[in-house]
Amino acid sequence: MSIESKHRFQAISLGFLAGYVNTVGFVALFGLMTALVTGNFILIGANLVSDSSSAVLIKFLAFPAFILGIAAIRVLTIWLDSKHRQNLQIQLTVLLQLVLLVAFMVTGLLASPIGNEPTTAAIICGMFGAAAMGAHSAYTRLLLPHLAPTSMMTGNVTQIVLDAMELMLGKGDTATKVRMSKSLWTIAAFATGAIVAGFCYVALSFWALLLPIGILVWLLRKEHYCELEAAQV
């Protein structure tokens, strides 16, 4: 498999994971967006003026949890830099995401069945989900700059439209086509993950998170990381 194919498969896997986890959080936890925390501010405003404002706290706490996930990844990468162990950055940052995602699943199962009001257990569950996706966002931004963003699709859609216009006007080049292809694959994977997650959660409750957990386990394979690190040199 070529480096380009490996990067594409990686983008598809991570985009699928982000869309999937975000949908599980939204369906299970009162409309919580674990991967798109800025969207929670809109939902907070809507909840505050609606008949039901009970879900405001879980959305509000998702923001600091998301920030903590980002900060944890950055602290980990800086610490590994100081120890001259940059070769472990990808493995350990994915491992951290895996631990947070497992915690999201376990606390979700403990909080189930989730009723009409968010319990303390459900709030903790949501915070683990947001922290996991904060770590995911930081990991892809810091260590996988060759990929299009895997959890924030608005920027990808904007870039695709800009690139399409460049090509239509005859101003695009090979780099434009490559960039457009990267965004298209990621968007398609994110959308697929979001759709699949809804059905999986209805059927399996929080056990549905075993699928994205499995994706992260696959990403921890030593051979996979050696190839990626060689590609980044």
Automatic annotation (TrEMBL):
<keyword id="KW-1133">Transmembrane helix</keyword>
<feature type="transmembrane region" description="Helical">
    <location>
        <begin position="57"/>
        <end position="80"/>
    </location>
</feature>
<protein>
    <recommendedName>
        <fullName>Permease</fullName>
    </recommendedName>
</protein>
<keyword id="KW-0472">Membrane</keyword>
<feature type="transmembrane region" description="Helical">
    <location>
        <begin position="92"/>
        <end position="115"/>
    </location>
</feature>
<dbReference type="Pfam" id="PF06912">
    <property type="entry name" value="DUF1275"/>
</dbReference>
<keyword id="KW-0812">Transmembrane</keyword>
<feature type="transmembrane region" description="Helical">
    <location>
        <begin position="121"/>
        <end position="144"/>
    </location>
</feature>
<dbReference type="InterPro" id="IPR010699">
    <property type="entry name" value="DUF1275"/>
</dbReference>
<feature type="transmembrane region" description="Helical">
    <location>
        <begin position="187"/>
        <end position="220"/>
    </location>
</feature>
